[in-house]
Design a protein that fits this description.
This protein has 489 residues and is α+β, with helices and mostly antiparallel strands. Helix content is 36%, strand content 20%.
């Protein structure tokens, strides 16, 4: 009888010895497994060593920064190698925080749809009224804020010292641990004493430097800046680097009182997030492999009646949310699944179109589809590796042109439209000295049924399209054909 599959860990010598003791290594499948896992482990060890070195360099870089107060007055960063992924400059962008921890996705969903209670409305009125007042000092404003937040959110909010940096108001959910779930920076009025957003990031930076488990678990935290009569909320987490996403709407209380319901909804969303973080930090948080911390939190997908776990290998493209992953089970226990897959994260996806066209052999095989908090979807599909190239990488000949157009006809006959048939979204594979050309369409974000699928609100105006291919309008077959005609001119 075959033994249970081995979980290949960080010590390949121990695992190989275990493998040899428990299996008949004359079995071709076992020999193949050894070869594959040795290669895989060798790659991972090299990658891990390089990543550990980069991580230590990054932490040393954080150590050299000034304290939070000075940081808020003087700090800027360039396009090259930014310290904080906080979108300033625009190139300082990482994986969205809501993909790094689910509490942030929940917060975004609740900001859009949560139903505020009467308590939330009363708090919104009380808090906005209090912040609209003038205070003699920053300390007076901070005192009032701490009292209001502590009462409404039932949290122990107090000024704290983190590596010699003193905060205005910090919440540690568990008094027995040092997990910082919220930090509030207060400025008495706008334009005084530096940038509260950067200063708040500085406190989170100090917290990360002080935390002994920073490389083993995810440390999500809300950073709130109160500047006079305004409040802004940011989401912070430590992945490959410190990543911060500011909520797009700053709450300005110096406005019509008819906005109270909106304020109350945001405060309700924050309350829900606080309860989630209270539970998260009060339980035993399992360690994750350090090299996995920089990737999205999703590490499994539903396939048939099973939950298939995977580990991230690398981003397919540093500018896209598409990752190469290795399934974390014995391939014999997941029949039909290749060892490597692609996982794509997107806000919108034509999964029905992709699935139907995959069954026709004109799209990569679709293995899973997950709906995540924060409006995200995760698409698990076949990874074609180096066998397929994009049309951007090839010189067109009549065989390729004919094969692409025939593929579009197959899709259209099923009633589907794509909407974005550019060279980068079409893969080709030539076999037997180009006697046969295999074509796959990818990037099914806009795709759907003709007469139902519409263009998104954001379209690149530099890309040539059909004159009627306009934001929010329906996608038609002739639009796809027009893009192919432009490409093959």
């Amino acid at each position: 009888a075959r033994s249970e599959p081995i979980s290949w860990a960080s010590r390949p010598d121990e695992k190989i010895e275990e493998f040899l003791k428990t299996r008949n290594v004359t079995d071709l499948e076992d020999i193949t497994a050894i070869i594959y896992n040795l290669r895989n482990l060798s790659e991972r060890h090299g990658k891990r060593s390089a990543e550990e070195q980069l991580q230590q360099q990054y932490l040393k870089k954080l150590e050299r920064l000034p304290g939070p107060s000075e940081l808020g007055k003087t700090y800027t960063q360039s396009d090259e190698n930014p310290t904080f992924l906080n979108h300033r400059p625009p190139s300082a962008e990482g994986i969205p925080t809501e993909l790094l921890h689910p509490v942030f996705g929940q917060f975004l969903d609740d900001c859009a749809s949560a139903q505020p209670t009467m308590d939330d409305v009363q708090f919104a009125v009380s808090f906005s009224t209090s912040m609209l007042r003038y205070y003699n000092s920053e300390g007076d404003r901070a005192d009032r804020l701490r009292n209001l937040f502590a009462d409404h959110y039932v949290i122990g909010l107090k000024g704290s010292t983190i590596r010699n940096a003193i905060t205005d108001a910090t919440w540690f959910p568990d008094s027995k641990s040092n997990f910082m779930a919220m930090n509030i920076e207060v400025k008495n009025e706008p334009g005084r004493n530096g940038d509260s957003f950067i200063q708040n990031i500085g406190y989170y930076q100090q917290y990360i430097l002080s935390h002994e488990r920073r490389e083993m678990i995810r440390l999500p935290c809300f950073l709130i800046s109160v500047v006079g009569p305004t409040l802004s909320i940011s989401r912070a987490i430590f992945g490959a680097r410190i990543t911060i996403d500011a909520h797009p709407n700053t709450l300005s209380f110096a406005c019509s009182s008819y906005n109270t319901e909106y304020f109350a909804r945001i405060f309700r969303a924050l309350k829900n997030a606080i309860e989630t973080l209270r539970e998260y930090y009060s339980n035993n948080i399992p360690d994750i492999e350090p090299e996995q911390r920089e990737f999205p939190y999703l590490n499994s997908f539903q396939s048939g009646g099973s939950r298939i776990h995977f580990k991230y290998r690398r981003a397919l493209n540093p500018h896209l949310l598409i990752f190469i992953v290795d399934i974390d089970v014995d391939v014999n226990d997941a029949p039909g699944l290749p060892q490597q897959l692609l996982v794509k994260f997107t806000r919108r996806y034509g999964v029905e179109a992709h699935r139907e066209c995959a069954s026709l052999g004109i799209a990569p095989e679709l293995f899973g589809f997950e709906v995540l908090a924060g409006g995200w979807k995760a698409v698990v599909m076949a990874y074609k590796g180096d066998d397929f190239k994009t049309l951007l990488e090839c010189t067109f000949d009549e065989k390729i042109k004919t094969a692409v157009k025939e593929t579009a006809v197959k899709m259209h006959r099923k009633g589907f439209v794509h909407g974005d048939l550019r060279d980068v979204n079409i893969l080709y594979h030539c076999q037997q000295a180009r006697d046969r050309v295999d074509i796959l369409f990818i990037d099914w974000d806009w795709a759907g049924k003709e007469g139902e699928a519409r263009y998104p609100p954001t379209m690149n105006p530099k890309i040539s399209r059909h004159q009627n291919a306009v934001a929010h309008q329906l996608i038609w077959k002739e639009h796809d054909d027009h893009m192919l005609d432009i490409m093959f001119r």
